[in-house]
């Protein structure tokens, strides 16, 4: 529509003033595409203004929607409320000392959420000017989409009718039960006020034990959850790999025993911590004493830390890491001691085995075996010449040294020996 004023080139007059123009009919608007946002989005285009055209359709993803409502302040500064992110609803609590904490409550119905968002878009809340007024007892309502963000904060009860209506609808959407739009999540139930409340620790009276990472056995997974204990495995605590000992006095189940941090199978002190191992675990054969075995003469051995009953004579075991060797040939005036040999628990005998050449100057250079007799070190054997240690030479005791001595005359090739025990 157009209005046109024309005049000629002669006389002029006072003219006129137009205060308003009225017409009948609709504003002509260009055709715009309409989108189906499906189940994961919502069309939140602005409503058409007076004498104007609507915006182009736009699908905002529900996952990008955030709606919050909170009330509080006052003397303590505590603020409580609800927060919706996508379809996930949480309760919120803010304190000046602890900041904001959130607790999951449940999920809202997507269809009801889209209807709510469409309504607040049409009555100038989503696209309104917002409000930020400090108050003693503040009520805030905010909405954020992928394209808009608006917040209204004012004294509770002082919001506009449109914002008050939006708050009322959000409260209905975030309640559960009849007429509500929320389904409570795991561990929650819908209470009489339409709020998703904790179920508490009411667990079934079913014994399906689980072992917590704290080493304690719980009657079932629910009981462990109520105690805020993570579950290490199903079944009772006290099997291989579970903690034992400690100041809590954790015990192993029958058929298992506690191995302590230093590898010992007896506690080094009252509150020592350890790990449960199988009853047939051993460090040395003596750890197996008392275990049942077949009624055949023999003795315990400990291959791969496992008690094994070996029939027949007891075997000899090499002293781990021990070797005593001279230079080849050796020098004059040598007095050389080996490292001390300490037999494992349960072992009572030692023998020295030649692991190569054995050649000393006869009656002048010697390999000596020294034994602790409980009060002093005594020399129990000397080898010289080509007569090296024999497998038949057995030395009783627990602690031993080997010593090599040479004089200042002739030298020979020396020796290389190891030690065995049983």
Q: Can you put this structure into words, describing what you see?
A:
By secondary structure, the chain is mainly β. Among the domains are: 139 residues, Mago nashi protein, CATH 3.30.1560; 104 residues, Spermadhesin, CUB domain (Jelly Rolls), CATH 2.60.120. Helices cover 8% and strands 35% of the residues. It has 3 helices and 30 strands. The chain has an 8-stranded mixed β-sheet. Strands 21, 22, 25, 28 and 30 form a 5-stranded antiparallel β-sheet that branches. Strands 23, 24, 26, 27 and 29 form a 5-stranded antiparallel β-sheet that branches. α1 packs antiparallel against α2. The model has no long low-confidence stretch (mean pLDDT 90).
């Amino acid at each position: 529509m157009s209005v046109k004023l024309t005049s000629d080139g002669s006389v002029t007059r006072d003219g006129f003033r137009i205060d308003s123009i009225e017409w009948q009919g609709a504003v002509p608007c260009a055709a715009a595409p309409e989108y189906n946002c499906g189940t994961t989005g919502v069309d939140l285009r602005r409503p058409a203004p007076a004498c104007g055209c609507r915006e182009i359709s736009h699908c905002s993803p529900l996952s990008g929607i955030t709606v919050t409502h909170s009330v509080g302040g006052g003397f303590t500064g505590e603020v409580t409320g609800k927060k919706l992110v996508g379809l996930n609803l949480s309760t919120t609590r803010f304190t000046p000392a602890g900041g904001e904490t959130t607790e999951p409550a449940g999920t809202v119905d997507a269809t009801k959420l889209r209807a709510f968002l469409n309504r607040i878009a049409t009555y100038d809340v989503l696209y309104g000017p917002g409000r930020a007024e400090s108050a003693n007892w503040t009520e805030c309502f905010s909405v954020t989409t992928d394209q808009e963000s608006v917040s209204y904060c004012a004294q509770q009860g002082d919001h506009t009718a449109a914002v008050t209506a939006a708050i009322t609808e959000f409260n209905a959407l975030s309640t559960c039960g009849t007429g509500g739009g929320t389904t409570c999540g795991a561990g929650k139930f819908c209470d009489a006020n339409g709020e998703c409340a904790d179920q508490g620790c009411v667990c079934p009276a079913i014994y399906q034990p689980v072992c917590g990472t704290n080493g304690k056995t719980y009657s079932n997974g629910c009981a462990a959850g109520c105690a805020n204990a993570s579950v290490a495995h199903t079944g009772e605590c006290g099997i291989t790999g579970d903690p034992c000992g400690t100041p809590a006095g954790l015990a192993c189940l029958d058929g298992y025993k506690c191995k302590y941090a230093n590898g010992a199978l007896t506690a080094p002190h009252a509150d020592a911590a350890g790990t449960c191992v199988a009853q047939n675990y051993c460090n040395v054969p003596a750890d197996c004493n008392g275990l049942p075995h077949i009624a055949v003469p023999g003795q315990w051995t400990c291959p791969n830390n496992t008690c094994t009953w070996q029939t027949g004579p007891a075997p000899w075991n090499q002293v781990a890491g021990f070797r005593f060797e001279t230079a080849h040939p050796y020098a004059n005036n040598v007095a050389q001691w080996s490292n001390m040999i300490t037999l494992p628990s349960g072992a009572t005998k030692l023998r020295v085995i030649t692991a190569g050449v054995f050649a000393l100057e006869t009656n002048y250079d010697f390999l000596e075996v020294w034994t602790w007799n409980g009060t002093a070190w005594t020399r129990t054997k000397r080898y010289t010449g080509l007569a090296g240690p024999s497998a038949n030479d057995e030395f009783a005791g627990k602690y031993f040294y080997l010593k090599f001595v040479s004089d200042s005359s002739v030298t020979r090739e020396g020796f290389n020996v190891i030690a065995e025990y049983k």
